[in-house]
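Table S2 (continued). Query chain:
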Amino acid sequence: MKSPSTADLSLFLCIARHLNFSRAAVELGLTPSALSHALRTLETRLGVRLFNRTTRSVALTEAGERLYQRLQPAFRDIADALEDLDSMRDSPSGKLRITAGRAAVELALLPLASRFLAAYPDVRLEIASDDALVDMVGAGFDAGVRLGERLQADMVSLPIGPYLRSVVVGAPAFFERHPRPRQPHDLRTLPCIGHRFPSGALYRWEFERGGMRLEVVDVQGPLVLGDVSLMPDAALEGVGLAYVFEDMVREHLASGRLVQVLEDWTPYYPGLHLYYPSRRHVPATLKAFIEFVRSQRDADL
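Corresponding output:
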């Protein structure tokens, strides 16, 4: 048996991470058909099937799973060794992959990214916008950006932006037809715009007053959205009340196109955090981004 090349094995690892030929092909810069042909060549060379694949799904075979578990840490060590060399350069270079929720990308990550890339022109930053919580290491990401309260305990994190505030807003025309809520429980009788997480769960609106009292409301309404960024537009159309980040509707509030209610029940809370695994070698590109985030935060204080 002719030994496969490291490029062949890297191709296998990429498919195993994604379990999706289209996404793996995009990451590798290949067409799905070329990727499928390369995999068949690798399987023929090894004499075993590595994946069970149908028109709807891709799954590792027992042999593929064993190979994946043995290769993944070895290739991670190789990547770490190369990162050690890169750290000796005057300026880091290479790819930095970050996963973040859609709102996090808009509110914090993109403004930082433009300034970071100007300071480090040899870095190629890839941002995957997904509201679902992903297995960062398994999916090949270096870091992520999420709300601090949603981070796993084994992650290292640092604030990437200021404290945030969520606000309940509605269009003036909405309040011509409906009364303004005075207490969170009043929302149960008003049309609200719901938000469904990628997990399938509906977000339950959370409120706090005086730092002590927490109230959770299961709202109802004619519209449920999976993309938080669409909620201000729906509120502007008068569909219902929306519960969104204040920064997403600041201009609409200033112009009077949206009206805020329940102000006393929506205090500020710790905002978005950059996070990364605590048990993994930190790549030079990520180290540079961490230091850049810290410098930007200190400059804002």
